[in-house]
Design brief:
This protein is mainly α. It has one domain: Four Helix Bundle (Hemerythrin (Met), subunit A) (Up-down Bundle), CATH 1.20.120. Helices cover 54% and strands 0% of the residues. Helix 3 runs parallel beside helix 4. The longest helix is centred in the C-terminal third of the chain and has 27 residues. The radius of gyration is 16 Å and the shape is globular. The two termini are 17 Å apart. 31% of the residues are buried. Pfam families: MST (PF04978). This is Mini-circle protein. InterPro entries: DinB/YfiT-like, MST-like.
Length: 172
């Protein structure tokens, strides 16, 4: 998928198509903001909170899968909290052993493909399945989409700051 720094121009009454366009845009923004960083820069924190750009990328890969596959579909996924130390949601972010920047970017886009399939085959008013992430009262697919969008938007902003601190690049 080509990287674009332009906000989606799709203007449709189909909210699922709009969600797909914006989620694709934010995934591309994440990739774009990490491109050009050395492996050392990807694995080094410049922030008082201590997270690294590669840890944030790992978090986004797991976050989208947790909400759409484990959450909405209710499918069991390996290591749903694998982006957190000790596999606990309250643990700090971590990068699994052997994970690489190219591999994580590929996983990010593969997760996006799965999300596009879900949004193309389910009604947004449908509630998530029980038995995966949710034991009771699962949210609607619409709520999940908004939640995932805000996660991406917030974390792309975090990457803006981390990138500027790492090498001075802004607004890319």
């Amino acid at each position: 998928m080509p990287l674009s720094d332009v906000e989606p121009t799709l203007d449709t009454a189909d909210p699922a198509a709009q969600f797909v366009a914006y989620l694709d845009y934010y995934r591309s923004a994440v990739e774009r903001k990490l491109d050009g960083l050395s492996d050392e820069q990807l694995r080094t924190s410049t922030l008082p909170s201590g997270w690294t750009p590669l840890e944030l990328l790992t978090h986004l890969v797991h976050m989208e899968r947790r909400w759409f596959v484990w959450g909405f579909l209710g499918e069991q996924v390996p290591d749903p909290w694998g982006d957190h130390e000790g596999g606990r949601p309250e643990g700090p972010w971590r990068v699994p052993d052997g994970a690489t920047h190219p591999g994580l970017v590929a996983a990010l886009h593969a997760g996006g493909e799965r999300t596009r399939q879900i949004l193309g085959s389910h009604d947004l008013a449908e509630r998530g399945a029980l038995g995966g992430r949710f034991e009771s009262d699962p949210p609607t697919l619409t709520w999940i989409c908004f939640h995932v969008l805000q996660e991406y938007a917030r974390h792309v902003g975090h990457l803006d700051v981390a990138r500027e601190l790492a090498d001075g690049s802004v607004g890319e």
